[in-house]
């Protein structure tokens, strides 16, 4: 489909809030909430794809950007309305716990995030490389018409890609929830970093995205430490611009943007 | 013809509606200027820029800083704010316009988000979340027959802003219908083809982007002068998206589009008396509906409707929408 979904960050925010409500208000088991949120977000992605993107898939590209931006506005406005503007603390029994490993203190939840991320990334990589649907996804991304010629149902594949994307946002949201403050505006920062990461790491390569994300996360943390959390965003953004200007393919990218 | 009617209506309006509604019209005028700026870079040059909110904030805060901290008068601050917005537009345009499609949009979005954050965070310079106050109104203009034209009242600042709206709309009209403007349109329709004809797309896009930034900066400075107080939410990136919504609803790539769209999308919440938070939500929903069903907006759809009146039979082939 080749359209960046600008609303992705906000979808992740919605997931975090969903998880929050499920656990805090309904006293649900955290892991169950995680699974449910993933499916819920995937379902949301399914609806969004067929209601929003599928009808205008043949329109000029800009219209698709505008649509995803409209989605972003709806999600942010809706979140402000329904969730309120106060920040929320997502507390689960072990959220405040800290493990001490050889003199370094780590928040338990962050370890969970790391473990979860590794699992998800491995699963995703297996999905793309080892299943036929994954192959179809790669084929469509590389050459849409060629994939059509091979008999791949491109619209179905696009839908799958989109739904997987939103489901991943679901996982991310619930994983990160206990580790940070929940605000309706929390989606934007991670979105920018995510885009920077995939541009830096290279489009079309999951390994690249991971490397990009790790490196940028490092940059962000270091910059937060030496300057301040806010200015760290500028570093991340600067890296993205420099990458786009000097090496648009990124580190491991496969395709250059075809205007 | 319709222009003249509209202009007369807007000039006479404050006499009939109350102060509150006049102030709303005033805000609509300021945001329309911003819309005209976006229309230039998006509607006529085909590049979707989300950076408008950044230039609004830059214009407003540049004006504020120069007027309040440096104690210069209104007019020097005003011109300085315009130039500064243009400079920022130029600087960010250089890397951004080398990219096409979603990358350009992304960079402008990032720029807008970051400027918003900087204005909020750089407390020493901007006062942070508390905002800045003490913005001057335009200095009194001496009249040839004695006395002064003062700008303290709502009515006077309303006409002042209206004057700039008309001025910028006229400039925009002249630019669009000039040779340069036709180059913009060529670029928006097919950049590669335009380049093959010898048009330097990059420099033209940069020109369009800079002018659009200057227009938006003017809107920011005007707002600062009118409101006397500015706060970082001027530069929050969703404001760019609101402007985009106004433009698409009104009609991209048309002269009346920004004005119609801004008016409609600001008048409706006022009529319904909704909470500010709902505004983004409602704008988003309306934008979504329009982009799916009526991408050319009100004015665009109206033009299509009118042009089909004489031709029975098949609707025209061609693009679905867009600039």
Concise overview:
Chain A is mostly helical.
- For this structure, the quaternary state is heterodimer
Q: Can you tell me the overall shape of chain B?
A: globular
Evaluate the radius of gyration of chain A. Answer: 19 Å
H and E order of chain B = HHHHHHEEEHHHHEHHHH
Low-confidence stretches of chain B: 316-322
**What's the count of strands of chain A?**
2
What's the average pLDDT of chain A?
A: 70
> What portion of the residues of chain B fall into strands of 2 or more residues?
under 5%
Major beta sheet summary of chain B: 2 strands, antiparallel
The rounded Rg of chain B comes to: 20 Å
Major β-sheet of chain A, in short? Answer: 2 strands, antiparallel
Overall pLDDT level of chain B: 80
- State the helicity of chain A in percent bands: over 70%
Question: Which structural category do the helix and sheet elements of chain A fall into?
Answer: mainly alpha
Sequence of secondary-structure elements of chain A: HHHEEHHHHHHH
Number of strands of chain B: 4
Query: N-to-C terminal Cα separation of chain A, in Å?
Result: 14 Å
Textual characterization of the structure:
- By secondary structure, chain A is mostly helical.
- Chain A has ten helices and two strands; from the N terminus they run H-H-H-E-E-H-H-H-H-H-H-H.
- Chain A folds into two domains: 174 residues, no CATH class; 73 residues.
- In chain A, helix 1 crosses helix 7 and helix 4 runs antiparallel to helix 7.
- By secondary structure, chain B is mainly α.
- Chain B has a domain of 219 residues.
- In chain B, strands 1-4 form a two-stranded antiparallel sheet.
- Classes of the chains: A mainly alpha (259), B mainly alpha (323).
- At the A-B interface, helix 3, helix 8 and helix 10 of A face helix 5, helix 11 and helix 13 of B.
